[in-house]
Prior knowledge:
Layout: E1 7-14, E2 18-19, H1 29-43, E3 53-57, H2 68-74, E4 84-86, H3 93-107, E5 112-119, H4 130-141, H5 145-150, H6 176-187, H7 191-210, H8 236-240, E6 263-273, H9 274-279, E7 286-295, H10 307-319, E8 328-331, H11 336-347, H12 349-354, H13 376-379, H14 386-400, E9 405-412, E10 416-423
Parallel strand pairs: 3-4, 3-5, 8-9
Antiparallel strand pairs: 1-6, 1-7, 2-6, 5-6, 7-10, 9-10
Helix pairs in contact: 1-2, 3-14, 6-11
Amino acid sequence: MSSLRRVAIIGGTRIPFCRSNSAYSDLSNLDMLADTLQALVDQHNLAGRKIDDVIAGAVTTHSRDWNLTREAILSTTLSPRTPGTTLQMACGTSLQAAMLLAGRIASGQIDSAIAAGSDTTSDVPLVFQKRFARRMVKLSQARDLMGRLRAFKGFSFGELSPQAPGNAEPRTRLSMGQHCELMARRWGISRAEQDQLALESHQKAAAAYADGFFDQLVVPYQGVARDNNVRADSSLDKLAALKPAFDRSAAGTLTAGNSTPLTDGASAVFLTSEEYAAKHGLKVQAWLTHARTSAVNFVSGEGLLMAPTLAVSELLDASGLQLQDFDYYEIHEAFAAQVLCTLKAWESPDYCAEVLGRTAPLGSIDRSKLNVRGSSLAVGHPFAATGARLIATLSKLLEADPGARGLISVCTAGGMGAAAILEGTKTAKY
C-alpha cells in the first residue's frame, strides 16, 4: 500500500482492580482475562465474530499459561477461529500489544484486533528448589522400585522449601522499589512531593467514580463494583504516618501509600481500521497515531524506570510535536517518585542534552492535565493490564473532547519504557 491507514480505538473495558489476596484471591489469569474479553465482546456486540488478532499476556504466570490468550479466546463467545498471541513486556505488556496490533492495522495486514492484559499476585507460581525438581524428573523416568528409591538418595527435607516469588532485577538484585529510591535520591524528590501526588491520584479516581466516568469502563465482577484500592478519605496526614517500605532508614521516602499496591485485574481494548469501523457501524473514540518503546542502561546507573523519558522524546521527534502539545498526560504511576523523576528529567537541560541528545530541555507540563481521572497509585496496577487501562481511559477522555490530544507513558521492569499518542476524532491530521 502507498500510505498507512488510521488506527481506530473503538473502546475498552476492564474489571475492577483489586488488591492482592482480596476479592480475586481464588481466580487465575485465565479466569480474569477470559471474563474481561467477554465483557468487551458484550459491549461491542462481537459474539460469533472472528477478530483478526488478539494479543494479550500476563507477567506473573504459571507454566499452564503457555497459551493464555488463545485459551481465553476459546472461553468467550468470539468465533473460535479468532487467533491469539501471548505476549509479555512486564508492565508495558498490553500497551505493547496495542502498538504491535496498530502497526498491523496501519499496514493493512489486519482490520480488527484486541489488546489485553491480566495479572494476579494472589495466584503466584511456587516452585521447588532445583535439586528437588531434578529428583522429580528422575522419579518420573524410573522404571522400577529401585530406580525410584535411587531418585531420593541424599534427600533432605530442606529441598521441600519452595522458592519464594520475587520481583528483583536479575542483574542488580534490587527490587523496583529499591531502584526507585535511588532515582528519588538522584533527582531530589521529597517524601512530601510523593505523598501529594498519591493523594491527588486517589482524589481524582474517587471523583471519577462519583461522577460516573467509569460506568462504561469498569464492569462489576465477582461482587466488586469499583477498584478496592481507591481511598476517597485519604489525607496527607494518613500518608505521612506510613513507614518507608524499601529503604527503611531515615533516608527512605517510598511507602506503601506512594507506591502502587500488588493488584489483581484485567483490561482489554478494541482496535480497528477506519474502514472496518465504518462497515460495522462502530463509533470511533480516538485514533492511535504514534507509538515508541525505548530502554536505558540501568545496570550501569541509568535509572531503572527512566526509559519513558527516552520513549517520549523519540516519540515527539517522530510526530513533530512538543511536550506541551497535549491536553492529557496519562503517565503510569508505578511510584509517585517515578512520575516526579520523569517530569524533572524533561525539565533538566543537562539530562536532555546528555541522555536525550537534545539541544534544549523538553520543558514542563501543565500538571492540571496529568492523570486527570487518577491512575495506578489509586486504582492499582495489575502489571500486564495497566497499558490497556490507560488506553481505554484516555480514549474515553478524547471521545468527550474530540479536538484534544493525549500522551501515554509507561515504565517497565528491565529498564524499558513505552509511550503512545492518542488523538481525538477532530484532531488527527496524519
